[in-house]
Design brief:
The complex is a heterodimer. Chain A is mainly β. Chain A is built from two helices and nine strands, in the order E-E-E-E-H-E-H-E-E-E-E. An eight-stranded antiparallel β-barrel of chain A has the order 1-2-3-5-6-7-8-9. Chain B is of the alpha/beta class. A five-stranded mixed beta barrel of chain B has the order 2-3-4-6-5. Classes of the chains: A mainly beta, B alpha/beta. At the A-B interface, strand 1, strand 2 and helix 1 of A face strand 4, strand 5 and strand 6 of B.
Chain lengths: 170, 140
C-alpha cells in the first residue's frame, strides 16, 4: 500500500506478461500462449498499455501455429496486437477497497479496434502489481476469417486469459 | 467384371489410406528444429537491437520468422511456468533481447550466471520494447 504513494514508482512495467487463448469446440480444443507480452500501468492516471507480438504465440501443433499466423491473424502484415485503456475504479483499487479492476479500453487486432470493458483481479505484493483475468473475444469482430472446412474446429468466441506481474519501471 | 470391381476397390482403398496418412502426418507436423537448423543470421546483441531501433519495418522484413544466432551478455534469467527466459543486453542500449528458451534447454540454463557472455539461437518474432526471440537454444 505505502509503495503506491511514492511518486517515482507510479509507473509499473512487465516485459514478460502472459497472454493465452483457448478455443473449444466438440471437435477440437486449441490453446496457445505467449509469455513475452509488454504491459505498462501508470498508477497516477490508471492508464494501461499492452503490446503483443502475434508470432510469439506458441501452439502445441506446428500446423495450427502456421494457420494462425499465415491465414487467420496474418502476422506478417499485422505483427502486433494491442490494448490501451484505463482502470476506471482506480481510487477504490488503490485504497484496497476492491480487488477487481474495471478496465475500459480498446483492443486492436489486425488493425481493427473495438471498445472493451475487461475485469481484472488485482493483487499488490510488495512493489508488484499483478493483474489477471479473462475475457471473451469474438473472432469475426477482428476481420479473422475462418474457412468453412475448419469452422467446426474453431470456436466463434475464444477465451483470452492474461497475467501481468508489473514491477516498478527501472 | 468381378475382377474389375475388385481391382478398383483396392485402388480406392489405397487412395483413401494415402489421404488419411498424409493428413495425419500433416496434422502432426513437427515444429522447426531450431537446434538442428543453421541460423539465417549471425549477429551481436548490439547489431540486432540497432537494426530494430533504427527501422523496425525493415528489421521485421529481415528477421521475422528467421533463425537468428545472437551473441550477447546475460542480463537476467528467470523461470515462469516451466519456461526459462534469458534476457540479453548490449552495453550501449537500454533495450534488450528477451529469449524464451525451449523446455529442453532448462537443464543447461542452471549453470548460467548474469554477466556471462552467451550465444543463443532462436526464432525472431519481432520487437516491442525489446527484440523478442522464441524457441531459443544455447549454442555456446
Amino acid at each position: 500500500m505505502s509503495v503506491f504513494s511514492v511518486f517515482s514508482q507510479e509507473r509499473l512495467i512487465t516485459r514478460q506478461g502472459y497472454v493465452a487463448f483457448y478455443s473449444t469446440t466438440p471437435v477440437e480444443d486449441i490453446k496457445a500462449g505467449n509469455n513475452q507480452v509488454l504491459s505498462i500501468v501508470d498508477l497516477t492516471t490508471g492508464e494501461i498499455a499492452i503490446s503483443i507480438l502475434m508470432k510469439s504465440f506458441a501452439f502445441e501443433k506446428a500446423l495450427m501455429q502456421e494457420h494462425f499466423n499465415e491465414n487467420y491473424v496474418e502476422s506478417n502484415k499485422y505483427p502486433k496486437a494491442g490494448f490501451s485503456g484505463k482502470i476506471i475504479n482506480l481510487d477504490d483499487i488503490l485504497s484496497g477497497e476492491v480487488s477487481i479492476a474495471e478496465i475500459k479500453g480498446e483492443l486492436t487486432i489486425k488493425d481493427v479496434t473495438k471498445p472493451m470493458i475487461i475485469e481484472s483481479k488485482v493483487t499488490k505484493e510488495n512493489d508488484q502489481l499483478i493483474l489477471q483475468g479473462k475475457f471473451m473475444v469474438t473472432v469475426a469482430d477482428f476481420n479473422i476469417k475462418i474457412p468453412a472446412i475448419v469452422r467446426r474446429n474453431i470456436a466463434k468466441e475464444v477465451e483470452v486469459s492474461f497475467r501481468f506481474i508489473h514491477q516498478p519501471y527501472k | 467384371m468381378k475382377k474389375v470391381i475388385y481391382t478398383s476397390g483396392i485402388i480406392i482403398l489405397i487412395g483413401v489410406l494415402t489421404v488419411i496418412i498424409v493428413s495425419v502426418k500433416l496434422y502432426n507436423k513437427p515444429h522447426t528444429d531450431v537446434l538442428a537448423s543453421k541460423p539465417d543470421y549471425e549477429v551481436s546483441a548490439k547489431e540486432i537491437i540497432n537494426d530494430f531501433s533504427q527501422n523496425e519495418a525493415e528489421a521485421n522484413k529481415k528477421y521475422l520468422d528467421q533463425i537468428v544466432q545472437i551473441e550477447g551478455q546475460i542480463k537476467d534469467i528467470n523461470t515462469t511456468d516451466g519456461n526459462t527466459v534469458i534476457t540479453l543486453s548490449s552495453e550501449s542500449s537500454t533495450k534488450n533481447i528477451i529469449c524464451t528458451m525451449e523446455p529442453s534447454e532448462n537443464k543447461k540454463t542452471f549453470g548460467l550466471a548474469t554477466g556471462q557472455k552467451i550465444t543463443i539461437k532462436g526464432i525472431c518474432t519481432g520487437f516491442l520494447f525489446d527484440v523478442i526471440i522464441v524457441r531459443a537454444v544455447i549454442v555456446n
